Amino acid sequence: MKTVFFDLETKWLFSEKDMIKNEDKDPSRLGLAVAGILDGGKCYFYDESLIDCLVSDLKDCSLIVGYNLGYFDYGVLSAYVSDDVIKSFKVKTFDMFDDLRRITGDFIGLDDLCMRNVKMKKNFDTLKIPSMWRNGKKKEVKKYLGNDLMMTKKLYEFGKIRKKVKYMKKNYGIDVGVKEVLVDWK
To answer: Which residues of the chain have pLDDT under 70?
Structure first.
């Protein structure tokens, strides 16, 4: 069984496309800057010109692991590929964000989880990534994406082995304490 870790970065933020309200947010309008697959310890990167290669590589794996893939990443990809392709990815996807949301009812950030569980953190400000890409800082964006992929992999492996993860419980954006939740990641 071939497991890969998948993530992508966009050319635009929701706010830059006047999508402020949740009901207005449409990831397909953000544009793919670069996608990444972590496979066997090596990162592979795909920009818009390599969508066909990305789709082929995702089709060739048995399990796609990521964080918020179902809503965000596949939403972005939906501007480039058919619904059938997205559906074929979703049936073999394990999305840690969705799993934790189902278990806790909370929206938990990848950065928070990784800092508390695997001692890793994001290496750039997430909100600056789209403008960095548009301003030609593609090497830095790929470095950021590679770090996010490694964080995703380490968190998944941690949860799979330890069967629990810690996160900061928030109430309307205010920290209310660190919680630990049991997970069954296979």
So the answer is: none
Instruction: Write down the pTM of the prediction.
Output: 0.94
Contact 20, 70 (CB under 8 A): no
Task: Tell me the pLDDT tens digit for each residue of 126-164.
Answer: 999 999 999 999 999 999 999 999 999 999 999 999 999
Per the CB < 8 A criterion, the answer to whether 76 and 16 are in contact is: no
% of the chain beyond a pLDDT of 70 = 100
pLDDT at 20: 80
Distance from C-alpha of 126 to C-alpha of 119, rounded to nearest angstrom: 18
CATH topology of domain 3-182: Nucleotidyltransferase; domain 5 (3.30.420)
Rounded-to-integer distance, Cα 140 and Cα 162, Å: 32
Query: What pLDDT does residue 129 have?
Result: 96
Domain coordinates in residue numbering, the chain: 3-182
Contact of 63 with 156, CB cutoff 8 Å: no
According to DSSP, residue 167 is labeled: E
Q: Is 178 in contact with 169 (CB distance < 8 Å)? A: yes
Beta-carbon neighbour count of residue 22 at 10 Å? 7
Least Cα distance to 66 among 165, 141, 127, 151 occurs for 151
Greatest pairwise CA separation for the chain in angstroms: 45
b/e 156-171 (16+ beta carbons within 10 angstroms → b): bebbeeeeebebbeee
